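ok so I'm stuck.
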Amino acid sequence: MLARKSIIPEEYVLARIAAENLRKPRIRDWPRKARFIAKNGACNLAHKNIREQGRFLQDIFTTLVDLKWRHTLVIFTMSFLCSWLLFAMMWWLVAFAHGDMDPSTENATNSTKWTPCVTCVRSFTSAFLFSIEVQVTIGFGGRMMTEECPLAITVLILQNIVGLIINAVMLGCIFMKTAQAHRRAETLIFSRQAVIAVRNGKLCFMFRVGDLRKSMIISASVRIQVVRKTTTPEGEVIPIHQVDIPVDNPIESNNIFLVAPLIICHVIDKRSPLYDISANDLALQDLELIVILEGVVETTGITTQARTSYVAEEILWGHRFVPIVTEEEGVYAVDYSKFGNTVKVAAPRCSARELDEKPSILIQTLQKSELSHQNSLRKRNSMRRTNSIRRSNSMRRTNSSLMVPKVQFITPEGSQSASET
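replied:
not stuck anymore, here's the structure
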């Protein structure tokens, strides 16, 4: 709060505000670019101005499956309630047309002269209860059909057919929502960050993928696409330009055996869109690498797909994933707490093109890393020696301080005796 003019002069207040502004530099946060695929695999795309809304009603079953759970439950409940109310009205009209609602026929019901269409249906409430009993096949014995009205028999057949259709559609919709393929993809995890490091003498783009369930994904395959905004020589702007990049897989079928977490590798060569990108240029690139994992669920046989993406800020240059699979008592154990952990390694900062043109860069980088590693080992050894010398000196000082001096005892006869404790 600014001080009052009567207490603090205005010149002093302005100078203090200026000094505070100089002490705290202003950092401008640039708006983050929207990504096409979120980290959880959801497509970050909004459909607007769709005029042909009737196309969704032509495929009503898929529309019901794609709805949210709260909307599906509301439709599930309302479909049964509306059908019960509709046929309750029809049963009430049948009883009213036949005269079952007339109070004069109430006493004649027990005699052989009068037979109603439906027994014990004399109000809309009783007609509604009879409609529920017919559609869900719950018979309590109080209300029942007779042979008096052919129209009532027709209504009974029609309600049974409509009820079976509603049961088949709604129960199938609920089953498909609970057994959707993307539910299985929730247990397929990707590393939060990707890395670029040297493997087999080549710069490689790598990320880790794993499956949390013991039931496997059969015929699993991984695809990588680079999405970026490009401009053609004719001046046409393509906002979503997709380019497939190959995955380094020694298996010819391009399938992976996802029994344990694997590191998927893409060799940055001439076919790769990352061929001309160096470590300094990576942060300035407007690109997104989309990873798609497809396979068949072993337990249900449904094809599932898991997706994620990596932008330039999520790619670590000169890092490598730490190993997480160890052998313990004859069993391979996976430590998922280290699933996304990386360690810094030696890697050239140049692009893959420069590395192919000058292979000596990789040799120089490895030599520098080896020298730095040796220097660090020497420093550690010297520090250990220094610490050990200091500890030995401190121990000697402590022992010398703990030594007890000699004490002389004088006997009554005047003789002296020395003892050491």
